[in-house]
Design brief:
Organism: Subdoligranulum variabile DSM 15176
Protein name: AAA+ ATPase domain-containing protein
Strand content: 15-25%
InterPro entries: P-loop_NTPase (IPR027417)
Strand order of the largest sheet: 7-6-8-9-5-10-11-12-13
Largest sheet: 9 strands, mixed
Shape: globular
Number of domains: 3
Number of helices: 11
Helix content: 25-40%
Low-confidence stretches: 12-22, 275-280
CATH class of the largest domain: Alpha Beta
Number of strands: 16
Radius of gyration: 24 Å
Structural class: alpha/beta
Length: about 350
């Protein structure tokens, strides 16, 4: 009996198939049938802003209060209190908070205390020996160990990985793929704090630093911006919401803590016009990028002097080392000290 056209095509592809008793050819690759996949509802940490098992970005210009907003949410969650403008009854949850830009003891801890957080439920993975990245297995191990329901990474540029160019779509997608898979496995909400680029007059989706594929890789994006009617007030504006209808913008007062005020009926576009007013303020990484080469123009400087110089300005050593790598600044040893110098 000759081959059927379908069998002939299979043979010519060179793929390996096994003939079952019923005469059905089955590819050796694992193939899933949608008929066998059980549909699930999206679960929410904060509806409709932050889903469980997915990645959310909270972005803003320098000094706009994005980290303060995140810490306020973390404090409420640690106490089991309702999030802004919701009526849900909550249980306290455990949170992992990773940051590379602010001091843990002198900045983050006081802000959490000011927000009334239950600090026994907020943990941090020690990065002194090795910095974390999106694909680091310590993330998943720590989430499972601590039964964490929220992972916060602040900022994006420090955790996406030193070998990943944020402007290369293929590298961005690969980095996010591993983080997304981890979020799905653990059912943990992942919230990434991100800086915005200096472009103005464009859709907020295009103001996320790096490739547009960063915005494409996440399911929700929230933008914190200045409220044009008050210099001390900010607005949390949803600019991307793939899994539910976008929620209303939320107004809050920013001082040494965050006070959530009310929901706004104003449209996102008019509210986001206020972003441009803060775009001139440099991020901490930008400060180092501008100042470090100037410091080294006159010759090598001991690395500890450089670290202390930036620490006095509230900039952590991880941020300085991150910029050093990107600027291709060399480390050289002289006697018992290490120096940094510009490449010739």
């Amino acid at each position: 009996m000759g081959e059927t056209p379908g069998q002939e095509r299979i043979r010519r592809t060179g793929l390996l198939f096994e003939l079952h008793k019923g005469g059905t050819f089955v590819n050796e690759q694992e193939i899933l049938c949608f008929a066998d996949i059980q549909a699930e509802e999206v679960k929410w940490l904060w509806y409709p802003y932050i889903p469980y098992g997915k990645i959310t970005i909270l972005q803003g210009d320098p000094g706009c209060g994005k980290t303060m907003a995140v810490l306020s949410l973390a404090a409420l969650l640690s106490k089991g209190e309702s999030l802004p403008f919701e009526e849900a009854v909550r249980e306290p949850i455990n949170i992992l908070y990773q940051t590379s830009e602010d001091g843990i003891a002198d900045t983050i801890k006081p802000r959490l205390e000011s927000a009334g957080a239950n600090c026994t439920r907020i943990k941090i993975i020690n990065e002194e020996k090795r910095a974390l990245t999106f694909d680091d297995p310590r993330l998943e191990q720590s989430i499972l160990q601590e039964n964490a329901r929220l992972l916060i990474l602040d900022p994006l540029s420090a955790y996406i990985g030193p070998t990943v160019s944020m402007n290369q779509a293929n590298e961005v997608r690969g980095a996010f793929r591993s983080l997304y898979a981890m979020a799905q496995r653990t059912r943990c909400a992942v919230l990434i704090v991100a800086h915005m680029n200096k472009m103005s007059g464009i859709n907020a989706l295009y103001r996320t630093s790096g490739s547009i594929d960063i915005a494409g890789a996440v399911r929700s994006i929230l933008t914190v911006t200045r409220y044009q009617r008050s210099p001390t007030q900010r607005v949390l504006v949803p600019v991307k919401s793939n899994l539910a209808a976008a929620g209303p913008a939320l107004l809050f007062e920013l001082s040494d803590h965050v006070e959530w005020l009310r929901q706004l009926d104003e449209d996102a576009e008019s509210l986001l016009n206020g972003c441009d007013s803060l775009s001139e303020a440099p991020t901490k990484q930008q400060q180092v990028e501008e100042e470090l080469p100037r410091l080294l123009e006159k010759g090598p400087i001991p690395n500890q002097e450089i670290i202390q110089h930036f620490k006095s300005k509230g900039i952590q050593d991880r941020t300085v080392n991150l910029v050093k790598g990107r600027l291709n600044i060399r480390s050289v040893r002289k006697g018992d000290k290490w120096y940094w110098q510009l490449n010739a």
